[in-house]
UniProtKB/TrEMBL annotation:
Pfam families membership: LacI (PF00356), Peripla_BP_3 (PF13377)
TM spans (from-to): none
Name the record gives this protein: LacI family DNA-binding transcriptional regulator
Domain HTH lacI-type: 6-62
Taxonomic placement: Bacteria, Bacillati, Actinomycetota, Actinomycetes, Propionibacteriales
UniProt-listed InterPro entries: HTH_LacI, LacI/GalR-like_sensor, Lambda_DNA-bd_dom_sf, Peripla_BP_I
Domain of life from the UniProt record: Bacteria
Amino acid sequence: MATRAVTMQDVADHADVSRTVVSLVLNNRRSVHIAEETRGRVREAASKLGYRPNASARALARQRSDWYGLVTEIVTAPFAVEVIKGAQDRASLDGKYLLIASTDSDPDAETAAIEQLLEQRVEGLIYATTWHRPVTVPALAREVPTVLVNCFDVEGRFPSVVPDERAGGRRATERLLKAGHRRIGLLNLDPDIPATVGRRLGHHDALREAGIPIVDELEVSGHATADGGFVAAEALLNLSTPPTAIFCANDRMAMGAYDAIKERGLRIPSDVAVVGFDNQVLIASYLRPALTTIALPFALMGAQGVELLAAMAGGQPTTTQTVTIDCPLIERASV
């Protein structure tokens, strides 16, 4: 049998005061004079009875809830969960918490989730995705401050926080150039997604700055999987003059490239160096040799998303700016 929740009236009866006095004490209202002995008696009664304030009623009265809503597919994915940790850690600095709604990229589920979060009077929304892409956000999100993380609104209505794909691609190639490589292959992702475009542009930036021509045969696109990386790496290794280093546009493709290199009796990094992208730790740390890679800054993106949201909820002007977050190099042993 369920236990009845302790009410403010129960606390008042136990402390032998009025319900109004209990409300003033528990809401720390100092504008009304109440003896410290009475305040102490009320707090002691509330603690002894296990009283908890009604969050919904308090949110209604204060017109704020101390909650942010997070609408995301990430909770069902093995990747990008650091977005949630980064967002919660940053929110907690302001005494805020996250209400998380899992949607699995279903538009109807997203709309329903946002409706439920708005009913809980969240002060703002974070809309986050597993991989960097354009999205269409349900119109309901415009009712409160909303920030997109690892994605951007196709209509440009909301501010977004995304990884600096181009700078990351440049950094990966610069690492290979620093190791003395001049014939560098690129295993890229499926065409036209932001990661594909940005990482390729950064790769080209680094080559041009080093005075190295861009050679079409050294760039191969494939599926963003280990199998896709294996097939694409095979194509590069079959060239009459194969590359001495390969930049893989994600770590799963790098895992396939490792297999293609090793099947030919070649060694990493002495025969072929490899750099990945994403820093999927379960892959990058446990490949042999461990994979040098570019990290996607999921935790920082989540934290920056909440930083923007807090500013907007605090009344700062809403903008449709895009904030890019740097992608650092994680040095291991494959270069």
